[in-house]
Specification:
The chain is α/β, with parallel strands linked by helices and 404 residues long. The chain folds into 3 domains: 4-14 and 101-242, HAD superfamily/HAD-like (Rossmann fold, 3-Layer(aba) Sandwich); 17-100; 249-400, Up-down Bundle (Four Helix Bundle (Hemerythrin (Met), subunit A)). The chain is built from 14 helices and 10 strands. The strands form 3 sheets. A 5-stranded parallel β-sheet has the order 4-1-5-6-7, with helices on both faces. Strand 5, helix 8 (190-200) and strand 6 (203-207) form a beta-alpha-beta unit. Helix 2 (39-54) packs antiparallel against helix 3 and helix 11 runs parallel beside helix 13.
């Protein structure tokens, strides 16, 4: 079984104390922008945009887009001009902040051993910076991007959620095609890294030098210790025990909310002529998958949930939804529009499930295929259906995207 590691960056792989780094980062950035934007106004706009990113719940807007909605309302500068200036700052000034950081001793050895073991690895940093800033900090930590091609490096350019939202961790795993094996989140921040990942049902390793888990309140990592303690712990841990536990309501809702975000992230820049390509005769195109997800949510999932909430032990008939691809001629429809429509319905479903009491999740139903069950089990099936189709979309993209 292949193990997947999600690695935090700052103070996990790179010693980067926020109390010293952030003030100097803000000072350097505001001074660089001073000929164009008042420094105080710039810092206030930057912080307001960042705050909005940390609260984002919209799966159809990247964190960069959320940031810009706030930022450009507060500064008098054209977006194109600011992007050029920011690019110059990150290429010329940002590198001078490296002296504020240093690699975490043992981190490179830990990652190299994980690579030797064949583990899948992604950088699960809080995606509040542009990709170039994350890549530079990775290089400062001893992980130049050209030498360590991690599967995912989270940044505000692509991601829709941030830590400690469990949907963030679901999003990064969705981009990784929902790994089948064990998954471990490794990080130093008890709330953002450990609590957030725990909420999705991930196993967690808390980077905490003395290995003591006291004062953790309700957040309990699977294991804690230094970066050098990680592999010895793995060696005595059963791989099966590291599989994701999707049993909690929080985990299930995070998966459901992440699905339209992942689809937006991997499809928003897709060439128009690829949407309707079928990898093989009889297989679905991307447009057909999205129409399927849209119609199943709109005509099956959302009505079923409402029925379970409104009736006592209702009967839920089966639906032959796969046949709709031909009977409704999905290939003639608009794929991007289907994604937008799916997102609207999915948010209605998530909002509905988020507002009901915990006990309501135990409401009984009679399913034509699964027999006696309850609302919780229906949502488990729904989330599994999402993960299957996310993997399918990745497979279609592999088949229809021209190889360089």
């Amino acid at each position: 079984m292949t193990l997947t590691l999600l690695l935090d960056l700052d103070d996990t792989l790179l010693e980067n104390k926020i109390e010293s780094f952030l003030p100097q980062y803000l000072q350097a950035f505001s001074q660089f922008m001073e000929p164009y934007i008042n420094p105080q106004v710039f810092i206030e706009a930057l912080m307001a945009g960042t705050s909005k990113m940390t609260r984002n719940q919209r799966p159809d807007c990247t964190l960069k887009e959320v940031f810009e909605e706030v930022f450009y309302q507060k500064v008098e500068v054209e977006p194109g001009a600011f992007e050029d200036l920011a690019e110059n700052f990150y290429s010329k000034i940002f590198p001078t902040l490296e002296h504020l950081t240093r690699p975490v001793p043992g981190a490179r050895e830990m990652v190299e051993k994980a690579i030797e073991q064949g583990y899948r690895i992604s950088i699960a940093t809080n995606p509040l910076f542009p990709l170039t800033a994350v890549q530079q900090r990775l290089a400062w930590a001893g992980f130049p991007p050209d030498q360590f091609p991690f599967e995912q490096v989270a940044s505000y350019d692509r991601y829709h959620f941030s830590k400690p939202d469990p949907a963030y961790f679901a999003e990064i795993l969705g981009y990784m095609r929902w790994p089948e094996g064990g998954v471990v989140m490794v990080g130093d921040d008890l709330e953002r890294d450990i609590s957030g990942a725990n909420s999705l049902g991930l196993s967690t390793f808390w980077i905490h030098e003395d290995g003591n888990v006291h004062d953790t309140q309700h957040t309990v990592p699977r294991k804690s210790g230094s970066i050098n303690d990680f592999h010895p712990w793995l060696e005595i841990t059963t791989p099966e025990s590291l599989r994701i536990d999707f049993s909690s309501r929080t985990s299930l809702l995070a998966v459901l909310r992440s699905t339209p975000a992942v689809l937006d992230g991997i499809l928003r820049h897709l060439d128009a002529d690829l949407w309707n390509l079928q990898p093989a005769e009889g297989s679905w195109s991307l447009t057909e998958v999205l129409c399927h997800l849209r119609d199943v949510d709109n005509e099956v999932n959302l009505p079923r949930v409402r029925k379970v909430l409104e009736e006592i032990n209702p009967f839920l008939p089966s639906e032959d939804t796969d046949s709709w691809a031909q009977s409704r001629n999905y290939l003639s429809q608009d794929g991007p529009q289907a994604l937008r429509q799916f997102t609207v319905t999915r948010l209605k479903l998530v909002d509905l499930l988020s507002t009901i009491s915990p006990g309501t999740w135990n409401n009984k139903v009679r399913h034509a295929i699964f027999g006696p069950t309850d609302l919780h089990e229906l949502v488990v099936i729904l989330a599994g259906h999402d993960r299957v189709h996310i993997s399918q979309v990745h497979e279609i993209l592999d088949a229809v995207t021209p190889k360089n």
